[in-house]
Amino acid sequence: MTVAQYPTRLPCGSRVLDLSRPQVMGILNVTPDSFSDGGRFAARDAALRHAAAMVAAGATLIDVGGESTRPGARPVSPVEELERVAPVVEAIAAELDVIISLDTSTPVVMREGARLGAGLINDVRSLRRDGALEAAVDTGLPVCLMHMLGEPGSMQQNPQYRDVLAEVADFLAQRMLACEEAGIPRERIVLDPGFGFAKTLAHNLSLFKHMEGLHALGRPLLVGVSRKSMIGQALGREVGERLYGGLALAALAVSKGASILRVHDVAETVDVVRMVAAVQMAE
Ligand code: YH5
After folding, report:
1. Comparing 147-151, 243-247, 271-275, which segment has the lowest mean pLDDT?
2. Which of 34, 49, 244, 262 registers the highest number of CB atoms within 10 A of its CB?
3. pLDDT given at position 4
4. Correct CATH for 9-280 of 3.40.30.10, 1.10.287.470, 3.40.50.2000, 3.20.20.20
5. Interval between CA 24 and ligand 1 midpoint (Å)
6. H helices of the chain, where?
């Protein structure tokens, strides 16, 4: 069994995340395709209802994202991203007992989101955009650093690794160092292997199998595989048919010591996590 080397409490703004057991982060997309048909307030209310349902199902974090990272997605301006995300962050902070994670690479969204009540910055670009490190430092919030080669738009084209686990670990160690030099202490960092970002199926499977090697970095791990194409490719399933595959990976991730699972299907994943934890806690 994997034993964590870090403290079991991660301060996230006004709340504390309990890392003594695995936690489930619910995904809340606030891109126009997700919630926008009835106008601005309807979109905010629909997002709030979805967040409330995920909290009722056991999510302790809600990951709010206003930028689509899909290959080919239209780039979103910082103002547009902020206009999508800010009302939802504000509403969740006012209404729900949950830690809000900001799925953003955009400095102004980090700053405004933190001011409106977010508790964690989740940046798939690991704070490599101009001004992102400084913005994250200024918020005082913990950050999730994720491995990705290149940019979301171009990343998947021909990814190559000599040793995927070693290269992911080296990248995360480098980004952790950049954070520490900028003023984000390591105690505030969460690490993510970045499943599905510039990785073939073989890369994703190997990285998943050997994920425990990342515990050498000494920080909690976040895993996001929910509905992703590694499940589709391994099983030959369309995006709406990937729940069981995702739950298998959730059980495996927890048994490999992952601290946070980023998922669409919160209720189902919470049962898996509680069941695995019950076995892990046995004599
Ligand atoms: C992640 O792994 N992923 S956005 C393609 C899919 C399904 C889902 C249909 N943000 C991560 O969720 N943040 C995203 O196929 C993330 N870790 C962290 N920390 C992509 C996504 C998805 C993409």
Report:
1. 147-151
2. 262
3. 60
4. 3.20.20.20
5. 14
6. 32-35, 40-56, 78-95, 107-115, 132-139, 164-182, 201-209, 229-235, 243-255, 266-281
